[in-house]
Amino acid sequence: MPHTETPGTEADPAPRLRWWTELPLILLVYACYSAGRLLARGDVAGAVDHGLALLRAEKALYLNFEHPLNRLFTREPWIGIPADFWYASLHYLVTPALLVWLFRSRAVRYRAARTWLMTSTLIGLIGFTLLPTCPPRLLDASHGFVDTMAQYSSYGWWGGAASAPRGMGDMTNQYAAMPSLHVGWALWCGVILWRHGGTRLTKAAGVAYPLITTIVVMGTANHYFLDAVAGAAVMGAGLLLAPVVMRTADRVKARFVPRVAPVPADTSAAGSSIVSAGCQTSAGERIPRQRESRFGAGAEPSASPKDAGDGAPAAAR
Known about the structure:
By secondary structure, the protein is an all-alpha fold. It has helices at residues 19-39, 44-60, 66-75, 77-105, 107-130, 148-151, 181-196, 200-219, 225-256, 290-295; strands at residues 274-276, 279-280. The chain is built from ten helices and two strands; from the N terminus they run H-H-H-H-H-H-H-H-H-E-E-H.
């Protein structure tokens, strides 16, 4: 038996997200992320100590992939230069492009994906604050790392301050290496491409993009391998916390934003032909007593046409 709902009692549809509310929210989170990187500079000596501790831990675990990759990127410009462009640009292009694509084409999935990304970004900001870490490229040269961004700076817009444009190095925190949100955001992009891309090419891009980004951040000496691991862990934590964040946001919105109750439809006259004041309409009438106004009182035509003449057809019997 088909299910029918009484008009006016249907379930309220999910609120539709609007770009003019989404854009300020995303810009606000990114502004907090950028400001946090500036404010969480910490003690340089402490940041260097944290970086060396990570390097020692990696060597003890035989996870020191940075040195061979960095030597390769330094020795081969055809690898190092594209890697620098990858590091300096895709981080800021691919992620917002996928957000816009989700918003326009996969609106049902957008809110959860956006909340996951923002929650993870804020967790990463906490990591920058609590554990300022010197990246490999800023360690003393005796540790064997070369800053490829500085080496190939004549090919791009960046200087010696990682991906920051020339002259703007003081506007970024170069000791925000742990966790690597380059890797974290790339992992988010990879999952989105894999789950919602729909083609083999997009699924392949979903696998390749975070893997190449992980290689790039180590080969350019901007991050340790453990920074990349921490970036993936931050995204995992954000994924687990995203449903909680959305439920909390819904409760806050329900408490402080008034809802307009749906007005039930008036169904009292749905099954009756009564128009007003007890008057009824007959078939073919638009208003009560329409026939009286046309023929006058007692002048309604009879069922058999007596005065129609000899040529008129007889009424059906």
